[in-house]
Amino acid sequence: MATILIIDEDVQTQGTLQTILQAQGYIIVTANLEKLAFAGVENLHPHLIIYTWMSENVDALSTIKHLKTQSDLTSAFYLLLTQPELLKSQFSRLEPQIDDWIFAPIDPDELNRRVSRGLKNNQSYSPQSDSSDPQLQQALSDLNLARKRLIKSEKFSTLGQMISGITHEINNPVSVVKGNVSHAADYTQDLIDLIELYGEEYSDPSPVIQERIEEIDLEFLFEDLPQVIESMKSGAERIRQLVESLRNIYRVDDSEEKFVDLHRVLDDIILILQSQLKGKKGRAITLVKDYGKLPEVKCYPGQLNQVFMNLLNNAIDALENRRVETSSEEPTIWIKTEVASSEHSNHPTTPQVIIRIKDNGTGIPENIKPKIFEPFFSTKPLGTATGFGLNICHQFVVETHQGQLQCISQPGEGTEIIISLPLTQ
């Protein structure tokens, strides 16, 4: 049976870890690093070490290096429990010293999965020594996976319910404005016609009326007032479209598998991103759509919504520098869809829906292209991204939908992401 050493200053966290892992049958030993209280750790040779790092005041790098100098702890698999911000601040220095990481608060299923994977990667640990029934272990693994998916589904459902409530509350007053502005336009035109008729019948107004006409610039008012009302009508319609798109993207039932129109999904997301495409400064981004004839695709709409949102956001970010350049090349995003047979897919004989999202931004350097789908990897400035966007895209496309996610990029020539989804799941 595997032996796990937990090094944590917080008694409550230590107890939580111990309870979760003991339930899996592991031998657990705890230690207090601050006082170097390693009683009973000598000659232990743990297969895996969980080290908790929750404070910037603690030098985690020096601590882990010190642990590895002890012969009994050298061959262990090192799993770091920390916060995303802390790990990001020291990731480049810590990565060579740790084998894996997990973020607080502790998720029991995720912890068990990381520990199980760590033990499999540790050559000093032989799972054959465990007396557990392999079929039981597989059943537990399947159950944990199903539970994890259920939790994700429930989280998305909760978000969908919240968005649905918000959009409903916005839609009510917008519908009132949109419905009444049409009447206001008709009433205004009637009043303008009446005033013009008065002007024809009484062409010689008194000095007081003539002075007032000049003061309010009646001729300009007649010309501008209908345009103002038309702008109000367009604004109300724009809000209605945004609310509808938001509701489509975060529908409560989008965590379930069903047939959807991918073009409508893309259009809803593009509408939500319009302000980012226009930009606050510099040139707007040109969006070119080349939609082929697609059948409805059986998929998890909520997941694909997130994939397209992440990829389009990445393309917009990649074009930020070009927006303020004096280059004659306009910052552009191309979206192309088609049905074809993909030679690189997991199902080469199955017709594929291909979605290409391409930009003419700065491109991706060759040395980092192999890392872009890894968790926690980001080329954006510290604190502006989590580093999980493309990793989530890869998980949703490849693992959930048995599709393919490819990246074609050259520095200075832009990036193209190709999504291939099998029509038959």
UniProtKB/TrEMBL annotation:
Keywords attached to this entry: ATP-binding, Kinase, Nucleotide-binding, Phosphoprotein, Transferase, Two-component regulatory system
Residue intervals passing through the bilayer: none
Catalytic activity: ATP + protein L-histidine = ADP + protein N-phospho-L-histidine
EC numbers on record: 2.7.13.3
Histidine kinase domain: residues covered: 165-425
UniProt cross-references to SMART domains, sorted A to Z: HATPase_c
Enzyme class: transferase
InterPro entries linked to this entry: CheY-like_superfamily, HATPase_C_sf, HATPase_dom, His_kinase_dom, HisK_dim/P_dom, HisK_dim/P_sf, Sig_transdc_His_kin-like_C, Sig_transdc_resp-reg_receiver
Domain Response regulatory: 3-119
A single MF term (Gene Ontology): phosphorelay sensor kinase activity
SUPFAM superfamilies membership: ATPase domain of HSP90 chaperone/DNA topoisomerase II/histidine kinase, CheY-like, Homodimeric domain of signal transducing histidine kinase
Record-linked PANTHER family: PEROXIDE STRESS-ACTIVATED HISTIDINE KINASE MAK3 (PTHR43065:SF10), SENSOR HISTIDINE KINASE (PTHR43065)
Protein name, entry field: histidine kinase
Native species: Lyngbya aestuarii BL J
